[in-house]
Amino acid sequence: MEEGQEQEHQRGLEVKCDERPGGCDNCRRLKLTCIVSASSPQVQHGESRTAKVKRTYRSCTACRTAKAKCCGSKPECHRCQQKQTNCVYEDKTQPRWTNILTRRADSRQGEPSWSPVQTREASRVSSPELSRTQRALTLQRVENSSPLDWLETASLPEDPVKIGLLVQEYFSNISPIRCFAFVHQPSFLQRLDTGLASESQRHALLHIICALGAQFYALEYSKTIEEIPPRSVLNMGSAWAKTAQRLVLEELGCVTIDNLMATILLHDYALRMGHFANAFMLSSLTTRMTQALQINLEYNTDILCKESTGLSVTEKESRRRLMWSCYALDALVGSGVDQLTLMDEKHIKVQLPCHDHNFLQQIPSITELLEPGQVLRFAPVTSHPEAAQNMGIMAYFIRHVAIRKRVLWYIKHLDLAMLPWLPDSEFAILTADCRAWYESLPASLQFTPDIIYMHKATSRLGALCVLHCSHFETMCDLYRLSAPALYKLRAAFEFPPEQHDFLCHLKRILFDSAKNLARIIAVTANHGESMLADSRLPIITYDSCRIMVYHCTQIIDPMAEESKALLRETLGHLKTNISALKKMRSLNAIAESLCSVAETMLRRSGIESEVVRQNNIIPDDPYSSPDEDGQSPGIAPPGTPPQRTPDSVLNPLSIYRLARKSVPERHAPETTSSSVNCTEQQVVQDAGNINQAYLNDLQTLLMSDLSWEWQPADTAVGSEIDAACLLPWTGVPNSNTDSWLPTFPFG
User: Is residue 545 part of a domain?
Assistant: First the structure.
């Protein structure tokens, strides 16, 4: 009997315990005493007898060798305690998938380290009902997933921490530039913490803010953790932007301040993504929404908010900023063409935005109107002296937009203008206005090394860059009079011999303005890609390249000894511009093609190889029709259209021209008569593929070897001048006849 019991006991040692609380079924079936259950704490009354033991991926060396289950307890597991063996754990006992799940998406404290999709997949890995094959496939999906997958989901993340990170990226990178600082950050964050996040799936403004923030979140990840292709960075959050536009259009009849803010940001997002037709249509929607809300007027006469009734200080200032943002947007789309401009500044009766500090701190302020020195007639008299001091960078940018709007209108109506060298001409007046604006900038807005780092510390360096780039871009547009062979002006002036010095003066300022653009962009690019976030910068950078190449190949004698130093300097500017365009690819779709054509333009010019070609070396027109190749500037092409359209006076890179190219059923009165007989199949294109076709066509058109047509953004094309107007270009004299030209600090 004792021998039988011993044999049974030996068999019992081989029975695998299922560790059921109170005794396992295997031992009970064999009528054996469960050693594990006996040594475990007894189940208390009321506890579930079906509770599962927590699974673990840690196994000691002894259990792994015996192929026995290990509880993973430290310093000793239960089995080693019973066997009285040495319990040793290896240093690296965690499987690979745990390291993937715990990898951080960013080095900053509190940042999410993996996506909700990964969390769900990882939890399924240890699920007992999965087969071994299913578990292997799930682990493979986890290993191939990215910590940024949550930025590509269809809906906003449920985690408020993640939403907060995206919102912070928006306020750090998008809000400061140009005229987008209309959302009061403290108030918005408060709304986010008090219920907005729970209703996020129906909030268009939050969706587009997160979509824009996702691009910069991914850009920072690409710089610090793992490199991501520029196109992938650009596409982050695209589903949220689509949701934002859908929500705005679904509630089109319900015009709200939040929806207007969302529409403005959607317009800028469309420009970044290269969806120009979408941006063009959204621009008109913003104008109608401002009219419906009537934010072109002050809410009431209580500017300093001394009365308790009505809107708060923050709400009033936010609406003013929103109105001026719509004005700047309309001026950008209109480009000086009356037919495309929907908003007139004479109907805007609100004061300019106050300083960002006052807006952030909710300090009521009196500022000037668009006209310098003017204030609201019902503003307190005691506040008039402080009006100019209360204005910040946004106010000065809006004043520049008003000047630029007049410059673009003037350059498109040269047939109605006075001769530019006359002292009372429109050209002289606009020149004086540009000069007065530049000199009115306070010391805190100068582009100097100290101010650069001050603005960088407050995330406003990008705004400072755009402010100064806009000024020199306007200077290039105004002084294009000196290069009718470069810009197809509608009616170029004929400069008589006695105005030779004046003509050389215009050429030099045009070239110097292009160089100043290159210097500003290069300095800003050294502080990171996010500082080049403005959607206008790629076109401005590209224009700077074309002007400099034109000057070096057509204006000066490249073989002269005194020109070699200038060519070396210009080559450095061209290379920094191209480098900046490469950095902009992650935030602007058009930067890729513009960078490619700039490199081709530099190579063809021969500046880099010091063998400058002067015959027909005029930089490429990015959107010239192939039918126009080889046309003489003094001879109208055959089949000149009898109807004039905005296409004939706008640059190919203007929003309207780019939008028109993506409209499949557009009328084309601007085309020549030779194309009238084209078939319907040639005219009507597949609208579903039109956005991708734009990017493909742009690359092809940029590479066309044109001999005449090219010009910077928002400039006139379609010349009606005759050959007599095109005088030979001579070198620029060394004497500086332009005493008022602003001197760039880094020149």
Answer: no
Are residues 26 and 153 both part of a single domain?
Answer: no
**Domain for residue 589, yes or no?**
no
The pLDDT, as a whole number, for residue 70 is: 86
Contact 25, 50 (CB under 8 A): no
User: Could you give the CA distance from residue 672 to residue 742 in angstroms, rounded to a whole number?
Assistant: 43
| 317: containing domain | 297-445
Rounded-to-integer distance, Cα 299 and Cα 318, Å: 11
The band of 701, judged by pLDDT with boundaries at 50, 70 and 90, is very low
Rounded-to-5 percentages of helix, strand, coil across the chain? 55, 0, 45
Higher pLDDT, 642 or 559: 559
Peptide bond into 745 cis (omega under 30): no
The residue among 273, 254, 271 whose CA lies nearest residue 204 is 254
**Residue the block writes with tokens 């224009």:** 543
**Placement of tokens 């100097």 in the chain:** 448
Residue 349, beta-bridge partner list: 297
Are the beta carbons of 546 and 574 closer than 8 angstroms? Answer: no
Q: What phi and psi values does residue 354 have, to the nearest 5 degrees?
A: -80, 180
* Residues 303 and 432 grouped into a single domain: yes
Q: How far apart are CA 318 and CA 323, in angstroms?
A: 9
Residues 131 and 173 in one domain: no
pLDDT band at residue 42 under the 50/70/90 scheme: very low
* Cα 315 versus chain centre, distance: 26
Q: Per the domain annotation, does 101 fall within a domain?
A: yes
CA atoms within 13 A of residue 641's CA, in its CB half-sphere: 16
Give the mean model confidence (pLDDT) for residues 76-84.
Answer: 85
Mean pLDDT of the region 427-452: 97
Same-domain status, 410 and 343: yes
C-alpha to C-alpha distance for 169 and 215, rounded to whole angstroms: 9
Q: What is the overall mean pLDDT for the chain?
A: 77
Mean pLDDT for the stretch of residues 444-469: 96
User: How confident is the model at residue 664, as a pLDDT?
Assistant: 66
Residue 242 included in any domain = yes
- Residue 349 φ then ψ, to 5°: -115, 35
- What are the φ/ψ torsions at residue 170 (nearest 5 degrees)? -65, -50
Query: Looking at the predicted structure, is the pLDDT value of residue 719 above 50?
Result: no
Residue 240 C-alpha from the chain's centroid: 15
DSSP state, residue 637: P
Comparing C-alpha atoms, which of 185, 176, 188 is closest to residue 394? Answer: 176
Q: How many Cβ atoms are within 10 Å of 168's Cβ, its own excluded? A: 15
**Confidence (pLDDT) at 740:** 37
624 or 37, higher pLDDT? 37
Other beta carbons less than 10 A from residue 637's beta carbon: 14
Cα dihedral 462/467/471/473 (nearest 10): 30
Same domain, 438 and 322: yes
- For the segment 7-28, what is each residue's pLDDT rounded down to a tens digit? 444 444 566 776 666 677 777 7
Supply φ then ψ for residue 88, to 5 degrees.
-125, 130
What percent of the chain is predicted at pLDDT more than 90?
50
Q: How far apart are CA 67 and CA 172, in angstroms?
A: 55
Query: Tell me, what's the pLDDT at 195?
Result: 77
